[in-house]
Amino acid sequence: MTAMQDVCVDLAAEGSELARLVAGLSPGQWSEPTPAAGWTVRHQVAHLALVARLIDLAVCEPAAFTAETAPVRDDLDAGLTTLLAAHLAEPVPELLRHWAEWRAAAEKGLAATPRREEVPWLAGPLPASVLAAGALTELFAHGQDIRDALGVPADLTDRIGHIAYLGTRTRDLAYQVRGLEPPAEPFRFELTGPSGVAWAFGPEDAEQRISGPAADFCLLVTRRRHRDDLALTAVGAVADHWLGIAQTYAGRPGPPPRRIGQYRV
């Protein structure tokens, strides 16, 4: 499931699917607010275009990537906001063209890179396969924001298995970004994919356990849904606490996700 070629194939499929969704939007729809405070559909697509461009640079031009992302290393969130501004100012047709070009280049570069080879990234080097899974996670998370804004339900596939894997691999980020010490106890994750396939991560005898639909797990670790709206079960106090703080990204966590239906209140 986590083979490099599979990740890149799934990354391309997810990107193409989301691109088709936004290709025919009206000007009003581009201005629709999304669950991310202050972000419209246009912001979400501009962010995805920026991510694709940075991945292309990281894989193909590491020195240029390092120079481009200098503001991000000083302050991750503020730096990304600065880099986003240029893409946000582009006319929609140009933004879509750039996103398509950078997405294709990033996918090609990742597919050609040995899966364990480290690639420079914003919070530190990552194996190419993990960066590909991270790119897929970005599409999933920001695609969910776009779909929520447009009222379009997501048609999930087992492509989300890579996101679930990343969510387990980045378990300790939730503690680190809050200045907390990660627990020493391992977790066992038992998740069910959209097709019914069973995915398991972590030692079988772990006392701290999380189980449920993989789709709900992915929504949780990308902080797109409140845990109370998801069918996830925790066994153990440490695992239960983690469900309330989980995240796959290194930036500031922000407030907990709102309950379903609340983001336009």
Structure description:
The protein has 265 residues and is α+β, with helices and mostly antiparallel strands. It has 2 domains: 4-154, Four Helix Bundle (Hemerythrin (Met), subunit A) (Up-down Bundle), CATH 1.20.120; 161-243. The chain is built from 12 helices and 6 strands. The strands form 2 sheets. It has a 4-stranded mixed beta sheet with strand order 4-3-5-6. The mean pLDDT is 93.
Span between N and C termini? 40 Å
Q: Tell me which CATH architecture of the largest domain applies here.
A: Up-down Bundle
Shape: globular
**How much of the sequence is in beta strands?**
5-15%
The pLDDT mean sits at 93
* Full CATH superfamily name of the largest domain: dinb family like domain
- Using only C-alpha atoms, the radius of gyration works out to 18 Å
For the biggest β-sheet, the strand order reads: 4-3-5-6
Helix count, DSSP H or I runs of 4 or more residues = 12
CATH class of the largest domain: Mainly Alpha
